[in-house]
Amino acid sequence: MQIEQVSKAIHRKQVLTNIDFSIEPGKVTGLVGRNGAGKTTLLRLLVGIIQPTIGDVKLSGKSIYTHPEMKQDIVFVPDSSEALKGYSIKEIEQLYRDIYPRFDRALFYQLIDRFQLPRNGRIHSFSKGMKALFSLILAFSTKAKYILLDEPTDGLDVIVKKRILQFIVEAVADYQVAVVISSHRLDELEFLADSIIMLKDGEITQEYSLETLKDSYKKIQVVFPHGIPEEIQGIGTLLQQTGKVFILIVEGELEAEIAKIRAARPLYYEELPITLEDLFVAKLGGDDFVG
Ligand SMILES: Nc1ncnc2c1ncn2[C@@H]1O[C@H](COP(=O)(O)OP(=O)(O)OP(=O)(O)O)[C@@H](O)[C@H]1O
């Protein structure tokens, strides 16, 4: 799937600007950003619920907006499954079979049994965790090539969460689907995602491959008795300061930057393991506005 220079304004407000990336089969792409950054709007654009003001989303070179049959290959799981509430499992299965011609009924019931959901239940009798699991089962049973998940584990207990994450990992490997996950759970994305797209105020500020993440950034703890010396101010991003202890995220020419820090003779120097959360705070933690 190619997302080409997509911008979207809603009620004259610019919500997304120049979004450009592609999504690969068999890979999980994590979408991160602060509240209001535009994640849900982007997912809604990728599934064709809304259309871009400028730009296009293409599958095999064809626009999903002018070739509606393409939408059989894309399924969106919103963060709440309220819309399905009034139906029974059988009714939803029928509905999905009408929309998605490759819907795999055998797989659907196999997964319903595996996760011990009642075959004859109605969705309104399900707990939040059961609804979340059911939405995922439904999505993967469509055999759509692109599965878009908005906060799939939001509000779930640890056990259900683990089952859901495990299920996503297995399903991506088994069916070679492309999954896009919007999430605030950076620890979960670290476990799941192959790459991360970071949105800020509707724009992509960073794209990371989780494989190279740890080679591109360093998290450094240093102690300077009189504050960070002038000659190295501006190197890296200050993540945290506790008294004389500074934690910095360094990027770019790592060796050269680290050599400069060491040349400033800190009383103590240590490299710490970097997490996605560190990068999130370093890159997006700058202001307190939530829009
Ligand atoms: N239908 C709409 N009408 C007006 N504004 C909207 C609409 N949809 C989205 N927006 C605005 O677009 C911006 C992005 O919203 P969106 O829901 O995509 O963000 P998000 O990154 O998913 O946020 P969160 O993490 O809080 O779910 C917000 O400022 C929101 O107010």
TrEMBL record:
PROSITE patterns, per this entry?
ABC_TRANSPORTER_1 (PS00211), ABC_TRANSPORTER_2 (PS50893)
Q: Which InterPro entries match?
A: AAA+_ATPase, ABC_transporter-like_ATP-bd, ABC_transporter-like_CS, P-loop_NTPase
Domain of life where this protein originates: Bacteria
Q: Name one Pfam family in it.
A: ABC_tran
Give UniProt keywords alphabetically. Answer: ATP-binding, Nucleotide-binding
**Annotated protein name in UniProt:** ABC-2 type transport system ATP-binding protein
Q: Which SUPFAM superfamilies match?
A: P-loop containing nucleoside triphosphate hydrolases
PANTHER family (UniProt xref)? ABC TRANSPORTER ATP-BINDING PROTEIN YTRB, SKFA PEPTIDE EXPORT ATP-BINDING PROTEIN SKFE
Query: For the ABC transporter domain, which residue ranges apply?
Result: 1-226
Which Gene Ontology terms cover its molecular function?
Answer: ATP binding; ATP hydrolysis activity
